[in-house]
Amino acid sequence: MLRTISNNLAFFRQFRQRFETTGAIAPSSRFLAKSMIRFLANRGPAPVRVLEIGPGTGPVTQRIIPLLANGDRFDIVELNESFVEILKSRFQQDAAWKTAAPFSEIHQLPIQEFQRDEKYDFVISGLPLNNFPADLVDSIADTYFQLLKPDGVLSYFEYMYVRPIRKVVTRGDEKIRITRIDDTMAAHCAEHRLARDNIVLNIPPAWVQHLAGSPDRAMA
Ligand SMILES: C[S@@+](CC[C@H](N)C(=O)[O-])C[C@H]1O[C@@H](n2cnc3c(N)ncnc32)[C@H](O)[C@@H]1O
Questions:
Q1: pTM over 0.85
Q2: Cis ω before 204 (30° cut-off from 0)
Q3: Residues with Cβ within 8 Å of residue 4, at least 6 apart in sequence
Q4: Which of 33, 115, 154, 218 falls 20 to 30 Å from 201 in CA-CA distance?
């Protein structure tokens, strides 16, 4: 309880200081977090590689960890050093997180600079794409598919109706930006969508998109 309050306060501070990259006023609800891990929850017994992008204070991370075991690999990419400190202290103090520490690693950098030779079975992303320049969203979406195995699953969320509403109420460069992001993500969903969950119990309500990997975009 105390940790939740302290994480919520830390998140709100980052929302005020770095709105563009934090993208929300509060960490995701447990309903949203559960939806984000629902494909991982159905994993088989074989070892898996999991990448979480933009974990913030860790509401999704804490649902990923109990689904992992020795032999798995868990990489976490987070840009914001304040969130990285919170996550590091959880890996040192929280019993379940300590168990996962030997096969987990936090990388403090933007995802667009994260490179790996081995791909992932699950990519789980909390990035606020609607806040980013359209070119950056194109490049991040490419990165998702380059990092994902062809038979892997990408899960990410987006706040409900933000782009449809902004497309109507904005003008000029902002309208062009949001329309381009919408076109990019709609194309990926049309090609790869496995499922979409509607999560009303979150601030704000969100869609969770689950997409299949792409054989033609996978790295060598
Ligand atoms: C909307 S918050 C989501 C936090 C958390 N996953 C949750 O559900 O509460 C977005 C997170 O993405 C991180 N972030 C933003 N841009 C990033 C980037 N380019 N690379 C890695 N992390 C980024 C932010 O620092 C923040 O932690």
A1: yes
A2: yes
A3: none
A4: 154
Backbone CA torsion sign across 27, 28, 30, 33 = negative
What is the tens place of the pLDDT at every residue in 145-194? 999 999 999 999 999 999 999 999 999 999 999 999 999 999 999 999 99
The DSSP element (H or E) to which 179 belongs, if any, is: helix 172-192
Q: Which atom, in ligand 1's list, is nearest to the CA of 112?
A: 19
Do residues 180 and 134 touch, judged by C-beta distance below 8 A? yes
Q: How far is CA 102 from CA 1, 93, 202, in A?
A: 27, 14, 32
What is the rounded distance in angstroms from the CA atom of residue 89 to the CA atom of residue 58?
A: 11
Distance 21 CA to ligand 1 centre (A): 6
Distance in angstroms (rounded) separating the CA atoms of residues 208 and 111: 20
Question: Radius of gyration over alpha carbons of the chain, in Å?
Answer: 17
> Which ligand 1 atom is nearest residue 27's CA?
9
What are the chain's domains? 2-214 (3.40.50.150)
136 in helix, strand or coil?
Answer: helix
